[in-house]
Amino acid sequence: MEPTSAILSGVSIANMIVLGILMWCFGKMYSKTKAQLPLGMIIFAGMLFLHNIIGSFAYFSMDQIFSHEVFPYMLGVTIAELAGVLILLKITLE
Q1: Can you tell me the distance from the alpha carbon of 24 to that of 57, in angstroms, rounded to the nearest whole number?
Q2: CA geometry: angle at 12 spanning 90 and 36, to 5°?
Q3: Structure confidence by residue, pLDDT tens digits, 30-87
């Protein structure tokens, strides 16, 4: 496994951890308020979670198929996603 694909997998796993925490927070909000927004955020975070499951599986299992020149760009997108969900988590916990 290439070091870049291992880093990509690690960042995807970090995304899944943060998204899991977000889904838990939004679940608590929904159970208290029954508002539609937390329910929508659970679905949104769930779709991103699924995206990261598929992505990390692909990085682990199909390393030879991907062009390694693409990995730095994919890493940038994945790190940007992690930054976004971390900001969303910070705002949610305040």
Answers
A1: 23
A2: 50
A3: 999 999 999 999 999 999 999 999 988 877 777 677 677 778 888 899 999 999 999 9
Task: Quote the CA–CA distance of 33 and 29 in Å, as a whole number.
Answer: 6
Helix locations, 1-94, DSSP H: 3-33, 36-61, 71-93
What is the pTM for the complete model shown?
A: 0.87
Which amino acid, one-letter code, is at 93? Answer: L
> What is the rounded CA–CA span in Å between residue 82 and residue 16?
9
**Neighbour-count burial for 59-83, b at 16+ CB within 10 Å, e otherwise:** beeebeebeeeebeebeeebeebbe
Which two structure tokens, joined as six digits, stand for 3?
A: 């070091």
Count of the separate structural domains present in the chain: 1
Closest CA to 85 of 40, 9, 20: 20
